[in-house]
Design a protein that fits this description.
The complex is a heterodimer of chains A (514) and B (255). Chain A has 514 residues and is of the alpha/beta class. Chain A has 21 helices and 10 strands. Chain A is elongated. The chains are: A alpha/beta (514), B alpha/beta (255).
Chain lengths: 514, 255
């Protein structure tokens, strides 16, 4: 099994490592290109120097993940502006937000070291540069920068190591990186994957750190040999990681997925069918519900599976619940008319948010419905995924039943199920297709007032693919072919049996043919 | 001829650090500015090649107002030697010396032969020293390179700010007298700043004694010895004289 996981991880390495290196190298290059002139200007003007370093220090205190998350809405706004003004959309997802956030992140060490390097030069040497007849620019390029070079290089080195580490966090904004191993591994409890991702990112950082250290001593010891060796080494690392990306076919279609197992499996299933229909495919996983929806609306991804109730409550802001069929129809119509998205139909199962408790505990307290739960809620703790408590469905549930919990906690879905099993929380907002409901013997609490909408899994296609017959023909056979028990079993394969989402997708595909 | 006309320098809103002073230095003269720390002698030196700009007055070289020159071009044609030497630590001896000719766009072959000549002039063996870095050299050797660098573009004027002040006494006397012969050999004009009256007496054609930003006396060493302007000049001259007498008594010789 672990050999299997290692082979699976290794197969993904060319893509993940290549994208990680391209992203990190671009960010450090862009960061240096901005920081060096800025630091030179800052070191020559005290009025500029203070604020520049202060701002860079503040940026550095923002957690890397938050910085990445901030660029998504910023680019979304910018994207709307460019669409309105130029009729052209800048991508808010993927490479660009990751590049911008990491560039900002890379700047502080370069700025700080350049300013320190330049201001640490013996004033006598600077006066000598003027006295021998150098202009201010000649003094900078012939004397000050060469003397500060080892310190500046040390800054670039620190920056590169930081960026390579932080780049693993760019997975949730839709940029593939070595972080994909870590995020996917965490979600599917595939620790071999997590470890593989850590070792790969750390090794890359270590190699780059060593190479840049050689460059640093090359500058301080005036050794051209060392500089050439370091530069050559860096170029080899970049070229070696780029090679598979260049030779790899450019993806024609991109399949999105949110951040849980079922979504990984379904995106693998969609990718497989499209691949067999002759499309070159790419997948972007671990996207938030709103992020993936916007990406489909803007055409940055071509297809993914969403749940009717999610769009009903979050995008259409509906709080009523007229039943499965009407919701499906109204959502499909709303998507077509307001977002230009085609809903191909329901896959055939529902994956609802359902408040659940351990059976033994529910039995002891005599809780069967949300109305029963409301009585005990003030003494209970509830756990949900990252999105749940900020979603309108939660508010509507709270209002309908007067739920008032003692505490609420958020978890990565995998850990949420463990938390309820181990008694860390009493109630969780489980996914009704999740295999762990059966595995951990959880009781699903009924919703007699229909506070929650239905959550039929819908296959959605972006506007630009609406007329692509070959594309639609590849996906249409999936409609109505996956029932609840099939999806639950596929999820259990990943959760309990530690099979990869691709294996689960393969198994699901086999069921569809029959 | 270098002529300072009503030159003064004021820092901030305080009293003038220098002047107003008037001074004329003849071609081929070796003039020494001497006085205690803070008397304005280094400021006066730095005004000549416009490392510092005067607050009032003007400086003429051969009748041309220096304020009308491009300061960068001006500095390329005036040699400057520092007490703390200021060699570029990342450049070799040869690379340091060839800086100014390089800035002036000399041909490579001319530069190379100039570096060889200069190393010989300051008595450093080119084959041994040309490729070395400043930190590998002794203080005296470094200042020889500093002098060679200042002379590289064949300046007519040399400015030297306490050039031997940081060296040990033996090296200092040796380098001082060597410089005096280089000065004579090249036929240049030198302004040298020192606080050491003995050094001034031994090297100068003209001594300019300064105190608190003003010139107290301006004359040949002999004139100073014969007719000190006031008790301040007298006391400055007395120091070397007293030392000479002490030495004479110790060795039992007539001064």
């Amino acid at each position: 099994m672990s050999g299997n996981a290692f082979a699976a991880a290794l197969a993904l390495l060319p893509d993940y490592l290549g994208q990680h290196v391209v992203l990190s190298a671009s960010a450090v290059l862009l960061g240096s290109a901005i920081s060096l002139p800025l630091a030179i200007a800052a070191s020559r003007s005290r009025r500029l120097g203070g604020p520049v370093l202060a701002i860079a220090s503040i940026v550095q205190t923002i957690p890397g993940l938050a910085l990445l998350a901030l660029f998504y809405p910023l680019l979304l706004v910018a994207s709307n502006v460019t669409v309105a003004l130029l009729g052209w959309r800048i991508p808010a997802l993927g490479f660009l937000p990751a590049l911008l956030a990491l560039t900002l992140y890379s700047m502080l060490p370069i700025l700080r070291n350049t300013v320190a390097g330049l201001s640490g030069i013996d004033p006598a040497v600077k006066t000598a540069a003027r006295a021998v007849g150098m202009t201010s620019r000649q003094s900078l390029t012939m004397v000050e920068l060469p003397l500060a070079a080892p310190v500046i290089m040390a800054g670039i080195r620190i920056s590169a190591v930081w960026v390579i580490g932080t780049a693993t966090l760019s997975t949730p904004v839709g940029q593939t990186s070595l972080g994909n191993y870590i995020f996917t591994g965490l979600q599917t409890e595939n620790w071999a994957f997590v470890l593989f991702g850590c070792v790969a990112a750390a090794s890359l950082a270590l190699v780059v750190d060593r190479l840049l250290a050689i460059a640093e001593t090359g500058f301080s010891r005036r050794s051209r040999k060392r500089l050439i060796a370091a530069l050559g080494g860096i170029l080899i690392v970049i070229a070696a990681s780029l090679y598979p990306l260049v030779t790899m076919d450019v993806a024609e279609v991109t399949i999105g997925a949110k951040n849980f197992e079922e979504q990984y499996t379904l995106s693998a299933l969609l990718a497989d069918r499209l691949h067999k229909a002759g499309f070159r495919t790419a997948r972007r996983a671990d996207l938030g519900s709103t992020v993936v929806f916007r990406a489909l609306a803007s055409g940055e991804i071509d297809t993914y599976v969403d749940y009717s109730g999610t769009i009903w409550a979050n995008e259409m802001h509906r709080t009523d619940s007229p039943g499965r069929k009407p919701v499906l129809m109204q959502v499909a119509q709303w998507l077509r008319t307001t977002r230009g998205i085609t809903a191909l139909g329901s896959l055939g199962f529902e994956n609802a948010y359902v408040l659940s408790m351990r059976s033994d505990r529910a039995k002891t307290l005599g809780i069967r419905t949300l109305a029963d739960l409301a009585v005990y809620a003030p003494n209970l703790t509830i756990g949900g995924d990252y999105e749940f408590f900020s979603r309108p469905e939660w508010k509507s549930m709270v209002n309908s039943y007067g739920l008032n919990f003692a505490r609420q906690r958020t978890y990565q879905p995998t850990f949420m199920y463990r938390a309820v099993r181990d008694g860390d929380v009493d109630v969780i907002a489980a996914f009704s297709t999740d295999g762990r409901i059966a595995q951990y013997d959880l009781r699903l609490l009924a919703d007699p007032k229909s506070a929650l909408p239905p959550y039929d899994a819908m296959l959605l296609v972006s506007g630009k693919r609406a007329g692509d017959v070959r594309f639609l023909a590849a996906l249409k056979p999936l409609i109505g072919k996956i029932n609840l028990s099939a999806m639950q079993q596929a999820n259990l394969m990943v959760d309990r049996d530690k099979r990869t989402p691709e294996e689960a997708a393969h198994w699901l595909a086999g069921r569809i043919v029959r | 001829m270098i002529r300072l006309r009503d030159i003064s320098k004021t820092y901030g809103g305080g009293p003038p650090a220098l002047g107003p002073v008037n001074l004329a230095i003849e071609d081929r003269e070796l003039a020494v500015l001497v006085g205690p720390s803070g008397c304005g002698k280094s400021t006066m030196l730095s005004l000549v090649n416009r490392l510092i700009e005067p607050s009032a007055g003007r400086i003429e070289i051969d009748g041309v107002d220096m304020a009308l020159c491009d300061p960068v071009q001006l500095r390329r044609h005036i040699g400057f030697v520092f007490q703390d030497i200021g060699l570029f630590p990342h450049l070799t001896v040869a690379e340091n010396i060839e800086i100014t000719p390089g800035l002036l766009g000399w041909r490579r072959t001319d530069i190379d032969s100039r570096v060889l000549d200069l190393l010989k002039l300051v008595r450093l063996d080119p084959s041994h020293y040309a490729g070395r870095l400043p930190h590998e050299l002794s203080g005296g050797e470094q200042q020889r390179v500093g002098i060679a660098r200042a002379l590289a573009a064949r300046p007519k004027i040399m400015l030297m700010d306490e050039p031997f002040g940081a060296l040990d006494p033996l090296v200092r006397d040796e380098l001082g007298s060597e410089y005096r012969s280089i000065h004579d050999q090249l036929g240049i004009t030198t302004i040298l700043v020192t606080h050491d009256m003995t050094e001034a007496m031994l090297l100068a054609d003209r001594i300019v004694v300064m105190r608190s930003g003003e010139i107290v006396q301006n004359g040949t060493p002999q004139a100073l010895l014969d007719r000190p302007a006031d008790s301040f000049v007298q006391s400055m001259i007395d120091t070397p004289r007293r030392r000479a007498n002490q030495l004479a008594q110790m060795f039992g010789e007539a001064p």
